[in-house]
Amino acid sequence: MLGSWLFLFYGCPYCFLFPLMSNCWYRFQRLVKQETVGMTMAGDDDGHWRCASCVKKWSWAAGGAHRLVVFGDWNEPRQVFENYQIAFIGEQSEVQNNKINWLKGCKAVETLAGRPITRESVLQMIETLNLETNRRLAQGGIQEVIRQTAEDPKSALEEANCRLVMEDERLSLRGPGCQFYAINPKLRDISVAAITAQELDALLDAAAAGLDVEKGPVATSNQRRIQGEVVSSPGFIRGRQLLSNL
Ligand SMILES: [Zn+2]
């Protein structure tokens, strides 16, 4: 969630299911690895994510270009998400992926609202963003949203010589039978195209105007550079002008 009107989802490139909440995936870990706190976010050598429907492995190579962008108008009085569009992100440059990650960091800082960064406050932040995404898209009436039940990962676990990791329900699925909401872009047989790099930039800059990017992460020179580029972009400046006129 990069704003009240712009969302980005990871999805399964095999069954085209895009869970609304980031914890609606299975986390697999190789049996040889010890279970430790923080293992959910450990590197790819230690574990990986699996689709809760077809239980196939998510990889950047297969799924990176199949991330989904959803944008529209959030109607606050009616609590409805209107005039929305759904598109694949397509192949994006490292520069754009860095920008997306930086904006996610800004949203995280905003959601933490000054609380100290602890394991619990980060988990609460993730939960808040997930519930807010669910509220705006599932309850807000997106027609492509379906209710899904997590399948049994048992045979996939055996095949991959892995165990299921669930160190916190706010991070990954507990097991089969869990219910969750997901976007299936093929549900209505709509053709889902990929947006261009220029279109994505315009969306990101406009979303940035609604975030407190001045307080965004600036720990590295790369982050400071991205911040400088975002706040000087025409889309950001125009967005801030529109917001100041509201
Ligand atoms: Zn799948």
In short:
The chain is of the alpha+beta class and 246 residues long. The chain has seven helices and nine strands, in the order ββββαββααβαββααα. Helix 2 runs parallel beside helix 5 and helix 5 packs parallel to helix 7.
User: What is the first-to-last residue Cα distance?
Assistant: 22 Å
Quantity of strands, as a count: 9
Structural class category: alpha+beta
Largest sheet: 3 strands, antiparallel
Q: What fraction of residues sit in β-strands?
A: 15-25%
> Helix share of residues?
25-40%
Give the names of the bound compounds: zinc ion
So what's the overall shape? globular
Output the keywords.
single chain, 246 residues, alpha+beta, three-stranded antiparallel β-sheet, 7 helices, 9 strands, binds zinc ion
List the helices and strands and how they pair.
Layout: E1 6-9, E2 18-19, E3 26-30, E4 47-50, H1 60-63, E5 68-75, E6 80-88, H2 94-112, H3 119-137, E7 145-149, H4 154-160, E8 162-165, E9 179-183, H5 197-209, H6 221-231, H7 234-244
Antiparallel strand pairs: 1-5, 2-9, 3-4, 3-8, 5-6, 7-9
Helix pairs in contact: 2-5, 5-7
